C-alpha cells in the first residue's frame, strides 16, 4: 500500500494531546461541610465503582484514538498497489450484442457499472481515458483525472446496431502496441466477448462481462426477383443459433403493406450456422416486406428484417439488325422469364444493333460495318487466336468466359480516341470496347454473330444482358437489405434519409441503423433496408476470447471506507457518552 499524501501522516501526532486530555485530572477545591457522614457514603460508592469508570474511560479513549487515526489515514489518501500505476485506457464494447439480455443485465449495463467502479477506485489518483468500440474506436473522454467528468462520460455509453469492424480492431491494436498516443497506459477492453474480436493484440486486457446466452438470429438475407420465373421472388436467408440443443422455430415472410403472410415455414435449428437457403414466393408484389424468426431467445434485434422488393423495371430495347430474328428471340426470352429486357419500338431506351446504329439510344453493336464514329480504319476480317481481358472485373465481362467466345468475323479496326478497351486479341486488336461519341454511349463487340453459331452460344444472352445493364447503369442497383455497418456511396445530387429522418448528402455513408433508408435521386426514389445480419453478433456463446484482464481496482477507495469507519466510531462514542450523562 502507498500513500498519495504521506505528509498527512504527521497528523497522527494529534493522538498525543487527545490521550493527554483523557488522563488530565482536575484537582477539586476544598470546602467545609457540617454533614460529613452524608459525603462519606458517596465516597464509599465512588470508590467501589472506580475500576469500572477507569475501564469505561479507557474504552472511550481507544474509540476516539481509532477515529482520529482513521481520519488521518484517510487524509493521506492510501492506495492498494495492484499494478504498475500506469494510466488506463478503458475501451467499452458498444456493438449490437451488448444490448442482449434483460434490462439492467445487458452487456452495456454491466460495462457501465464496471467502468464506474474503476473510475471510483481511481478517485483522481491517476488518469484514465474512455473509448467506445464497435464499427470504429471513438474516444468518449481523453486522459483525465476528474472522477466527475469520467463518470459523466461513462453514463453516455449506449450500444449501437452495428458489429465490430476490422478497422476498429486494427485501431485498438495500434493503441495497445503503442503506435497511437503516448503508449504509457494499460488497455482494458470491457466486452461480452462475442463475435468480431479475433486478432486482438496480446497487450489488450479483456474483461468479459455476463454469461453465454441462448439466441438465434438471421445472419444473411436478400430478397429479389428470380430470373426465369415470372412474378416469382426469392428470399435468401441464413440463420445462426447459440442454443446448446436443437430448437424448433418458424420463419415468417409477410408483405408489410398488405399485412398478408406469404410464407410461414417451420424450421429446425441446430447449434451453429445453418446452411443458406432460398424461399420462393409466387405472385410476389413489390414493396416493403418483413422476415421474422419466431423464437424465444435473449436477443431480439436479429429476429426481424425489413427489406424492399423493387419494381421489375424493364429496359425497352429496339433491334436494328439483318439477323433480327435471333436478337428478338433473345429479348423475348428475357421478357417472358421475368428478366429486365423487353422489346420496344417507339419508347426504346437501348438499341441492339448489327453494324453502325441509328437513333440516339445507347447501343450494343455486334460487328463493324460501314462508317461510324465508333470505329475507323475498318479493314478485312482477321483471325483471332486468343482473347485477353484488359479490364479485370468490368461489369460487361464479369460473367463471361472469353475462351468460350469464337471471335469469328472480327475485322481490323481502330477504336476511337478515349475508348475503354475491355478485351483485345493477342495482336492487340480491340475485341470488346466502350466508347462515347456525340453524347451517345455504345459497347462494340468485334465479331459477326451469324458466324460460328454465336447466336446459339450461352454467352450470347449473357453478353446482351450484362451490356444492357451496364449501359443503363443498372448493375449497381441497390440490394433489398444491407448488413448494418456497410458503407454505401450516395451519388452526386442524391440525398439519403435514415430511419430516424436524418438527411445525408452525397458521398460515402455508413448504414449504422436498422430500418428502411430512402435514397432520393433526380427523377427517382429508391428504398432499401438495413439489418444486423452478422454471425458474430448473433452467436452469443462462449467462443470469444478468454478473459485476460489483470487485477484492476474497482469500487470505493480506501479513504472513503476509513472516513465511514471514523464516523461510525464517533457515533458509537456519542451514544455511550449520552448514556453516561443520563445515568
In short:
The protein is α/β, with parallel strands linked by helices and about 575 residues long. It has four domains: about 85-215, Rossmann fold, CATH 3.40.50; about 215-310, Sandwich (Immunoglobulin-like), CATH 2.60.40.150; about 315-470, 3-Layer(aba) Sandwich (Rossmann fold), CATH 3.40.50.880; about 480-530, no CATH class. It is built from ten helices and 30 strands.
Write structural notes for this entry.
With 583 residues, the chain is an alpha/beta fold. The protein has four domains: 87-213, von Willebrand factor, type A domain (Rossmann fold, 3-Layer(aba) Sandwich), CATH 3.40.50; 216-310, Sandwich (Immunoglobulin-like); 315-471, Rossmann fold (3-Layer(aba) Sandwich); 481-531, no CATH class. Helices cover 24% and strands 29% of the residues. It is built from ten helices and 30 strands. It has helices at 15-23, 36-48, 50-75, 107-122, 147-155, 166-176, 324-336, 459-471, 535-538, 558-582, and strands spanning 2-3, 78-79, 87-93, 128-133, 137-144, 185-191, 204-208, 216-225, 232-241, 247-255, 261-269, 272-273, 277-282, 287-294, 304-309, 315-320, 341-343, 350-354, 363-366, 387-389, 420-425, 430-437, 440-445, 481-483, 487-490, 495-497, 503-504, 507-510, 515-521, 524-531. The strands form seven sheets. It has an eight-stranded mixed β-sheet with strand order 17-16-18-19-23-22-21-20, with helices on one face. Strands 5-4-3-6-7 form a five-stranded mixed β-sheet. Helix 4 packs antiparallel against helix 5. The longest helix is centred in the N-terminal third of the chain and has 26 residues, at 50-75.
Amino acid at each position: 500500500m502507498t500513500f498519495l499524501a504521506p505528509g498527512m501522516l504527521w497528523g497522527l501526532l494529534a493522538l498525543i494531546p487527545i490521550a493527554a486530555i483523557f488522563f488530565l485530572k482536575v484537582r477539586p477545591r476544598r470546602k467545609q461541610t457540617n454533614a460529613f457522614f452524608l459525603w462519606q457514603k458517596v465516597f464509599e460508592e465512588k470508590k467501589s465503582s472506580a475500576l469500572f469508570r477507569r475501564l469505561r474511560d479507557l474504552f472511550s479513549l481507544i474509540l476516539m484514538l481509532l477515529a482520529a487515526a482513521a481520519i488521518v489515514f484517510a487524509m493521506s489518501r492510501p492506495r492498494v498497489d495492484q499494478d504498475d500505476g500506469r494510466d488506463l485506457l478503458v475501451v467499452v464494447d458498444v456493438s449490437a450484442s451488448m444490448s442482449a439480455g434483460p434490462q439492467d443485465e445487458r452487456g452495456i449495463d454491466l460495462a457501465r457499472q464496471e467502468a464506474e467502479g474503476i473510475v471510483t477506485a481511481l478517485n483522481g489518483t491517476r488518469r484514465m481515458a474512455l473509448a467506445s468500440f464497435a464499427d470504429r474506436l471513438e474516444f468518449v473522454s481523453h486522459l483525465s483525472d476528474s472522477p466527475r467528468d469520467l463518470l459523466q462520460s461513462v453514463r453516455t455509453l449506449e450500444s449501437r446496431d452495428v458489429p465490430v469492424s476490422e478497422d476498429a480492431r486494427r485501431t485498438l491494436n495500434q493503441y495497445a502496441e503503442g503506435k497511437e498516443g503516448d503508449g504509457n497506459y494499460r488497455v482494458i477492453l470491457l466486452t461480452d466477448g462475442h463475435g468480431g474480436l479475433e486478432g486482438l493484440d496480446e497487450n489488450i486486457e479483456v474483461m468479459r462481462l455476463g454469461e453465454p446466452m441462448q439466441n438465434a438470429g438471421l445472419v444473411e438475407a436478400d430478397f429479389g426477383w428470380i430470373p426465369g420465373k415470372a412474378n416469382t421472388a426469392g428470399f435468401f436467408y441464413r440463420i445462426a443459433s447459440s442454443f446448446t440443443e436443437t430448437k424448433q422455430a418458424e420463419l415468417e415472410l409477410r408483405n408489410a403493406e398488405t399485412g398478408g403472410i406469404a410464407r410461414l415455414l417451420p424450421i429446425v435449428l441446430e447449434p451453429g450456422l445453418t446452411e443458406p437457403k432460398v424461399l420462393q414466393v409466387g405472385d410476389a408484389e413489390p414493396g416493403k416486406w418483413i422476415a421474422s424468426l419466431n423464437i424465444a431467445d435473449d436477443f431480439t434485434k436479429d429476429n426481424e428484417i425489413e427489406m424492399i422488393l423493387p419494381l421489375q423495371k424493364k429496359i425497352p430495347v429496339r433491334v436494328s439488325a439483318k439477323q433480327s430474328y435471333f436478337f428478338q428471340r433473345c429479348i423475348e426470352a428475357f421478357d417472358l422469364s421475368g428478366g429486365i429486357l423487353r422489346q420496344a419500338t417507339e419508347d426504346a431506351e437501348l438499341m441492339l444493333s448489327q453494324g453502325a446504329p441509328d437513333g440516339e439510344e445507347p447501343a450494343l453493336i455486334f460487328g463493324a460495318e460501314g462508317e461510324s464514329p465508333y470505329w475507323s480504319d475498318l479493314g478485312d476480317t482477321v483471325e483471332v487466336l486468343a482473347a485477353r481481358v484488359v479490364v479485370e472485373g468490368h461489369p460487361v465481362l464479369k460473367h463471361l468466359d472469353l475462351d468460350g467466345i469464337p471471335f469469328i468475323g472480327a475485322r481490323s479496326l481502330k477504336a476511337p480516341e478515349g475508348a475503354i478497351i475491355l478485351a483485345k486479341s493477342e495482336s492487340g486488336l480491340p475485341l470488346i470496347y466502350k466508347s462515347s461519341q456525340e453524347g451517345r454511349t455504345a459497347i462494340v463487340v468485334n465479331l459477326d454473330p451469324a458466324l460460328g453459331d454465336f447466336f446459339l452460344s450461352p454467352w450470347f444472352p449473357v453478353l446482351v444482358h450484362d451490356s444492357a445493364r451496364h449501359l443503363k447503369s443498372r448493375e449497381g442497383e441497390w440490394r433489398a437489405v444491407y448488413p448494418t455497418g456497410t458503407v454505401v456511396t450516395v451519388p452526386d445530387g442524391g440525398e439519403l434519409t435514415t430511419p430516424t429522418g436524418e438527411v445525408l448528402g452525397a458521398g460515402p455513408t455508413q448504414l449504422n441503423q436498422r430500418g428502411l433508408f430512402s435514397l432520393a435521386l433526380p427523377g427517382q426514389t429508391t428504398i432499401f433496408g438495413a439489418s444486423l445480419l452478422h454471425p458474430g453478433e448473433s452467436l452469443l456463446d462462449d467462443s470469444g476470447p478468454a478473459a485476460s484482464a489483470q487485477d484492476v481496482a474497482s469500487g470505493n477507495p480506501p479513504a472513503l471506507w476509513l472516513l465511514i469507519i471514523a464516523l461510525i466510531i464517533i457515533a458509537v462514542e456519542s451514544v455511550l457518552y449520552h448514556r453516561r450523562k443520563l445515568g
